[in-house]
Fold this protein.
Amino acid sequence: MAAMTEELTLRSGTVLRNRICKASMNEALATADGKVTQDHIAVYNVWADSGAGLLITGNMMVDGRHMNEPLVVDALLETNMDLLRKWAETGKRTNTHIWPQLNHPGKQSPKMVNDTPVAPSAVPIENDMFVPPRTLNDAEIEAIIDQFAEAAARLEQAGFTGVQLHGAHGYLIGQFLSPHHNRRDDKWGGSFENRFRFVEEIYKRTRARTGKGFNIAIKINSSDFQKGGFTEEDSINVAKALDALGIDLIEVSGGSWENPVNRKGKGEVRDSTRKREAYFLEYAEKVKTQISTPLMVTGGFRSAAGIAEALSSGAIDMAGVARPFAVDPMFATHVMRNPSYVSTVAPIRSGIKKIDQMAIMEISWYTMQIERLAHGKSSQTKADGVWPALKVMYRFWKNGKAVKRVRA
């Protein structure tokens, strides 16, 4: 367990008190128009006592007109500042760092909230949940880059000690990096250098707008597992380029709406994952020797033994864990104190193929657990039929309609 409890010193000078991070999960606690609520403060007060050295929030939008789903925070909404300050304060009493995750979904903004999605190129998502996007022009790209930097500056002003750029899971940064999604022939597309330019400019402008000790992290895919798309070689090149720029922490994940990852065939977990828990350790071992930036892997960690082995091997510097924190808000403390601890998290299935393929049951059930924590209730450890999914899906549908009314 010693590897888990070691401090991690980042390039910024920030010292994280241990190697456990609550990775990003959408809290789904905002209002339809992107306002922070007291429920955000309440659930992060709970997680501040979890024992984790770092908490990364659910993704906040840098443009409230483009949400990845209902009930997410608009990072640039001026009326959010007072509650953002209270949110940032929740971690300070336990020396727990909290970093908001910043995102623009690009074309991965579903039609329940957005009829006019945008993308590097007008390549549609093969899913009827999404309207085909239109191509961004140069001025719009520059404006989005500035929105990322402005959002980070405001969050620093609110008292957060860092931000994480969301470059994974098929969102806009990842779309620019992928030759499948980015088919431009200008300075933003084509060569790796041009496809990398978007995230490079976001990083540089964010760094220029924030203080020396402020942390900038990123979440990237190990690959998008899509023919003609973002490859493992691309991913390693992104990690190396960001390392050279001075980024503070790189988190590795994978997948998108079009290509859910971590599973093969008929929902079977990959053999390599079953043996070592985490989904991306093989990738991490390849990239770790080529960068000096601390590396975090998220996806699959469930036990104290699995986390300890991954950290002790040197493949990663930090373990990112998400869903176990929804069912056990003291997860970090438990894995650091109990070598035999295993989370109760398990796959949740409805038996309805389309729902299970999209993980709607799982997402909905864990969303309900987060809401319970925010309301001072204990988490449930077992799903109760399909009703949780139906309740949350109705709430999302209702608020999706409200988002469109707000914009009208």
Summary: The longest helix spans residues 138-158. The first strand starts at residue 8 and ends at 9.
